[in-house]
Amino acid sequence: MASDAELTEYELRKAGIDFILRRVETRDDFLEELDKQPPDLILADYSLPAFDGLSALALIQGRRLEVPFILVSGAMGEEVAVDSLKQGATDYVLKQNLARLGASVERALREFEERRQRRQAEERLRESEERFRTLFETAGSFISVASPEGLILEFNREAERITGWRREEVLGRGFLGVAVPEAYQEEIKADMQKVLAGQATRAYEMPLKLRDGGERAFLWNVNRLLGKGGEVLGVMAVGQDITKRKEAEVNLRESEQKLRLLASQILTAQENERKRISRELHDELGQSLTILKLNLRATSRQLQEPLEVKEELGNLSLYLDEVIDKVRRLSRALSPAILEDLGLVPALQYLVNEFSKYYDINHHFALPNLDHLFDKESQIIIFRIFQEALTNIAKHAQATEVRLVIMESEGMALFEVEDNGQGFAVSEILGSPSMERGLGLAALDERAKMLGGSLRIWSRQGLGTRITCTVPVDQKRS
Ligand SMILES: Nc1ncnc2c1ncn2[C@@H]1O[C@H](COP(=O)(O)OP(=O)(O)O)[C@@H](O)[C@H]1O
Ligand SMILES: [Mg+2]
């Protein structure tokens, strides 16, 4: 008659299971085998002459070995069987029913493998949760999670640091009450509902309320958290402190305003100074030169001889005329009295005439009279814009043609000066530190702003330059 062990082996082979069998009959052999190579599955007889199944089970558990364990027994009551399962056996098979063994082993191995994989997945999940928690706690951002009802579930260290609240104090309290200033309550409440409903959010700015009642400027990203089954767990708010950035922005704006004011004051002071020098040139120097000329004429008339001296006096008088003319021109360039007397268009015409006298440039001219739209101060500013643009053309452009346009349409006045010269790289020139370049273009821009308008410079290497200044005229209409 075949032994139990042989029958067991026979059943397993019959079930098509591929295995190596190690058979032990004593406690020592059992332990030795466990040490040598832990088995994938243990089949144990309930009672052996020198050892028994439940003791073997206890040994395995003592060693924390994870092995499926099936008890095979001839004489085992239902109670003992259940008991063995309670103690941790995977299954039991009665000897009378050994045909079940194959199925039992297969199931035990399968379940064991499944359990192993599940445990591994759980382990990974735990690790990733740990990683997430570390991230959550050490992130440099305020992070808080609230339930769908708005109660705080999480509050990270940065949130504690910024608000002055301790985590234990705010857990379970309403996020709105803890972190949102009064003025934003309704808005944020509505936003939370939208987020919970799945609407994507953009980053938005809202002050964070602090424990001491203070506030800090914050930039927020709010998202909803979903569970495995797609159920809504709550919302996560991540906030960045942008107080410093805000302050810097305000400071920058203020200092820009100050600079602008300073620039316009400088330009105004320059204009006044020019007027003064111009008057001085005209009234003092111009008058003196005229008197000198008259005296020279009178002297020359009285003098008959010597002829060379008389001739020389004649030359001097002509030369003096030239000097007087130069002084007058200088005086006019400095302060366009003609503008004061006759208005912008004649002043510009004069400017262009002067310009084309000295530079061989053809100009196309289209100047409607817009004087009624601008007060005298604005007219001077416009005059200076054209003056600088034309001077630049003379100095830099090597152009053969210049086009001037003045136009009014749709509440805007447009002033344009265009040349066909060599052009220049606008962004390079404007981008370079102002110490290294002239101030002409920068002053142009300032002047346009003083008029409440804007300036555009278009230029291409070899294709010329176009400067366009647009000014709204409605508020200037008198
Ligand atoms: N119409 C133009 N054609 C070619 N280059 C120009 C013209 N206007 C300005 N530029 C270039 O831009 C530079 C800056 O001009 P600007 O600010 O008026 O200073 P500045 O005239 O004192 O050099 C000039 O040096 C010149 O290189
Ligand atoms: Mg210049």
- What are the low-pLDDT stretches, counting only 5+ consecutive residues below 50? none
Give the structural class. Answer: alpha+beta
* Number of structurally distinct domains: 4
CATH H-level superfamily title of the largest domain: Histidine kinase-like ATPase, C-terminal domain
Just name the CATH architecture of the largest domain: 2-Layer Sandwich
- Give the CATH topology of the largest domain: Heat Shock Protein 90
Largest sheet: 5 strands, antiparallel
- Please tally the β strands and state the result: 15
Spatial sequence of strands, sheet with the most strands: 5-4-10-9-6
The ligands bound in this entry are:
adenosine-5'-diphosphate, magnesium ion
Summed over residues and divided by their number, the pLDDT gives a mean of 88
Percent range of helical residues: 40-55%
Radius of gyration, whole Å:
49 Å
First and last CA, distance: 128 Å
Brief summary:
The protein has 478 residues and is an alpha+beta fold.
Descriptive report:
The longest helix is centred in the middle third of the chain and has 60 residues, at 243-302. The protein is of the alpha+beta class and 478 residues long. It has helices at residues 4-14, 27-36, 53-62, 78-86, 101-138, 157-163, 167-170, 175-179, 185-196, 243-302, 307-334, 337-342, 344-358, 376-397, 426-431, 440-450, and strands spanning 42-45, 69-73, 91-94, 142-146, 152-155, 204-205, 208-209, 215-216, 218-226, 232-241, 362-366, 401-409, 412-419, 454-460, 464-472. A hairpin with a 5-residue loop joins strand 4 and strand 5 (152-155). It has four domains: 4-127, 3-Layer(aba) Sandwich (Rossmann fold); 139-241, 2-Layer Sandwich (Beta-Lactamase), CATH 3.30.450.20; 247-335; 339-478, Heat Shock Protein 90. Helix 10 (243-302) packs antiparallel against helix 11 and helix 14 packs antiparallel against helix 16 (440-450). Helix content is 53%, strand content 18%. Bound molecules: adenosine-5'-diphosphate and magnesium ion (MG). Adenosine-5'-diphosphate (ADP) binds next to helix 14 and helix 16.
